[in-house]
Design brief:
Blueprint (H helix, E strand, L loop, with lengths): L8 E5 L14 E2 L2 E2 H11 L4 E6 L3 H12 L4 E6 L8 H5 L8 E5 L2 E3 L1 H10 L4 E6 L13 E5 L2 E6 L7 E9 L2 H11 L5 H10 L3 E5 L5 E3 L3 H13 L8 H18 L6 H18 L5 H17 L2 H8 L5 H30 L3 H27 L13 H13 L3 H22 L3
Helix pairs in contact: 5-6, 8-11, 9-10, 9-11, 9-12, 10-14, 12-13, 12-15, 13-15, 14-15
Length: 434
């Protein structure tokens, strides 16, 4: 069920976070603070309004929120002077501002599809995102367990001996949560879990099962490293080419992980990859084997770092239509220049005019393979994702030229892969004709 209104997200960021050894909301993860990563993750999934409840060293956190606001995010801070009593008091601090809202903790991370599924499927009633795959939970002893009856939560707590799922730390609440927390506080427990237990006793909270994607509660440095691995693992796309998925990504992700700690834009990486490809292509001009082999190595390296722009964009939430367009345009220029110089390299060996015809044949293959794919996406509103289509992607042709250059056969390898590209375009046209 899709909500007509996407309710705001309340982020609990008031605690001390002793196990992190730093002010938790400000701890860095892949170039972004935990708070910034949380806000941008949920913003990407569709939430537009945020409240950050602050307490411990709140002035530092507030200053950081001001920086996040400069990215065009609608975010406010709410002071909670009672934060030491328990995180339930942070939810109470929202009273009077919102009647319905999402809640998560600043150290909980979710894949975008997990967030979107929860946002799109909760109704008016109190709901907790639960994970029934308890064997995959990193630290089950510290996890808050959930007992279910159907999809209704009947008990919750870390101490439960019998349970059906674990609490992921993502909630949707209505005003009933305020009264429930106050009841728990009268009994001496100001935690959010205690308030949720009160709702469970009244049959007023339900569980929504996580179906796919990752989530993690990164409460320690070790768990933060696991979160980093999960985020990096989610970056490769199913439409990646064979070489990109099995080779290039393994290297480019390591580079992107390091570059995330610097103020380097994705567009800068796009331009750097383009210039590297041009530099490598020019070396084919000299003809000697040492230059040809070096040219192949450089263009393959350019192909690897060509993935860094998109990786940095996704890791730091800097994706933009212009960036994607720039990458596509420069890739086509690089492909054309590469084909011209490889053709010249072949001409130096064979000294025949027919070499230039084969060069034009190859150039057309590279341009048409990309153009036909983009046109198909435009006309049919879906991607060409067959196994055979992966053999006409850019990573394959560059890798083929790279391997050919090591044997001083860059031109021959280019022509062969170009033939394959033309054949795949023809096959796609034939099998999709109606």
């Amino acid at each position: 069920m899709y909500l007509r209104k996407v309710f705001p997200l309340v982020i609990l960021a008031a605690g001390e976070g002793r196990r992190m050894g730093e002010v938790k909301p400000l701890v860095k993860l892949l170039g972004l603070s935990l708070l910034e990563r949380t806000i941008l993750s949920f913003n990407e999934a569709g939430i537009r309004k945020f409240y950050v409840v602050v307490g411990y060293r709140k002035e530092e956190v507030k200053k950081h929120v001001e920086e996040i606001r400069k990215r065009g995010i609608d975010v406010e801070t709410i002071d909670n002077d009672n934060w030491k009593k328990g995180n339930g008091t942070s939810v109470l601090a929202v009273r009077g501002r919102e009647k319905k809202f999402f809640v998560t903790m600043v150290d909980h991370f979710f894949e975008k599809d997990v967030i979107k599924d929860f946002i799109e499927n909760v109704g008016r009633r109190n709901t907790l995102l639960i994970d029934k795959e308890v064997d995959r939970v990193f630290n089950i002893h510290e996890a808050t367990k959930v007992k279910l009856k159907g999809n209704k939560i009947i008990d919750i707590g870390k101490e439960l001996k019998e349970y059906d799922a674990v609490d992921t730390g993502l909630f949707f609440f209505n005003e009933e949560i305020f009264e429930a927390i106050e009841e728990a506080m009268k009994e001496g427990n100001a935690s959010l879990a205690a308030g949720v237990r009160k709702l469970a006793e009244k049959g007023k909270i339900y569980g929504h099962e996580k179906k796919r994607g990752y989530w993690i509660d990164a409460d320690t440095k070790e768990e933060l490293r696991i979160a980093e691995k999960l985020i990096l693992k989610s970056i490769p796309k199913k439409e990646d080419g064979i070489i990109s998925f099995n080779l290039n990504r393994k290297v480019s992700l390591k580079i992107s992980k390091w570059l995330c700690n610097f103020n380097i834009s994705p567009n800068l990486m796009t331009i750097l990859s383009f210039l590297t490809a041009i530099a490598g292509s020019i070396l084919f001009y000299f003809g000697k084997y040492i230059y040809t082999a070096l040219a192949g190595i450089i263009i393959q390296f350019a192909s690897i770092i060509d993935g860094c722009d998109g990786e940095i964009a996704r890791l730091k939430f800097l994706s933009s239509p212009y960036g994607a367009w720039l990458d596509t345009i420069l890739d086509r220029y690089a492909d054309a220049i590469m084909a011209i110089f490889v053709t010249y390299n072949g001409w130096l060996i064979y000294r025949s005019i027919i070499i230039w015809f084969f060069g034009l044949f190859s150039l057309l293959a590279f341009l048409m393979a990309s153009y036909s794919r983009k046109e198909y996406e435009l006309r049919y509103n879906k991607k060409l994702e067959g196994k055979i289509d992966k053999l006409s992607k850019r990573d394959i042709r560059i890798f083929s030229i790279f391997i050919g250059s090591l044997f001083n056969k860059a031109f021959e390898f280019m022509v062969v892969i170009a033939m394959l590209h033309h054949i795949i375009v023809a096959i796609d046209l034939a099998r999709r004709r109606k």
